[in-house]
Amino acid sequence: MSDQQFIAIGDIHGCYKSMEAILEKLKPYDDRQLVFVGDYIDRGPDSKKVIERLIALGKEVDAVFLRGNHEQMMLDAIYKGNFNLWMMNGGRSTLRSYNMGMHSLDFPEEHLEFLNNTKLYYETEDYFFVHAGLSPAKTIEESLGDEQEMKEFLWERSHLNAYETPWEKTVVFGHTPRPNPLKKEHMLGIDTGCVYERAGYGKLTAVKLPEVEFIQQVCLDR
Q: On the CB side of 116, how many CA atoms lie within 13 Å of its CA?
């Protein structure tokens, strides 16, 4: 086992106040690396402020920013004109936070650079951090060798109901909101639906590793 220590933070979805509150709860970060599992934008009220804060945080501490499917949808809208999917999935709230309409996509250059530099995954000696998950029928190494499988890192959900997986290390992910963190062998799911008002959801979750200590913040952004 490595002696590396981490804090992984789940899907924020424009919930700036909740993010600030959980970052305060998590201090001091000490020598821990922060790993954000993606979906910083859409649905919640303050996507722009979330991105601004993450850019600043990345200059202050050791942090890794993964790409979520919502960042991918935003980038596909900007660079490929694929607006409909983004608009159907909360993109309008992001545009509102930037005081923009669909035909004036003049995002700050630093924000675009941040989004373009997000990682598809982050692998360490003991953990594999990814936004959504990966195939429960393949080893991590096999998935990394398959270009199509890697595209599913942003969308995968089939592992959630798998009885067991051949994964070589613990996979830490967000993407699929659940009332409580998911903790199974080689599997930690930390999206607890901060942005949703459904009963049991509405919490932002982080996990300290290797202790597997969950820290939560009830949504403050409604």
A: 10
Is residue 40 within 8 Å of 15, Cβ to Cβ? no
For the chain, domain boundaries: 6-218
Task: Measure the CA–CA gap between 12 and 219, rounded to whole angstroms.
Answer: 10
User: What is the rounded distance in angstroms from the CA atom of residue 46 to the CA atom of residue 94?
Assistant: 7
CATH class of 6-218: alpha beta
Share above pLDDT 90 across residues of the chain, in percent, rounded to a whole number: 92
The CA-to-CA distance between both ends of the chain, in Å, stands at: 41
Banded pLDDT at 5 (limits 50, 70, 90): very high
Tell me the per-residue pLDDT of 53-69, one tens digit each, with 9 for 90 and over: 999 999 999 999 999 99
CA atoms in the 13 A half-sphere facing the CB of 77: 27
Tens-digit pLDDT profile for residues 19-29: 999 999 999 98
User: What's the helix, strand, coil split of the chain in %, to 5?
Assistant: 35, 20, 45
Mapped onto helix, strand or coil, the DSSP state of residue 179 is coil
Phi (first) and psi of residue 169, to 5 degrees: -150, 175
The model's pTM: 0.97
